[in-house]
Input
Amino acid sequence: MEETRARLHALRAEAAERLVGLGDARTDVVDAARGANVDDEHDPEGATIAFERAQLEALAADARRRLADVDAALARLDAGTYGTCAVGGEPLAAARLAARPTATTCVRHASS
Ligand SMILES: [Zn+2]
Output
């Protein structure tokens, strides 16, 4: 269990770091947009910047979701429900948890 906790904390730190990095990248894009003083709608460069910003937003949303997943897994670890299927209540296979430490259901009950 301590090994699992350590792994989850490592994943959490990784996602948090990515989120911070994406925040920096977004600031750069916004600065570039301001410096260029472009019209997002009609300037091709503006469209590129808008696209880049949207990409960064998507990546940040992904990292935030990952953080939430890891936090939920840590909460389940504290509650003693970690590693059991949220649908059927059966224990998850060790291989599944090794591949996906934040898994909440067994393969059979996984919706995605
Ligand atoms: Zn299940």
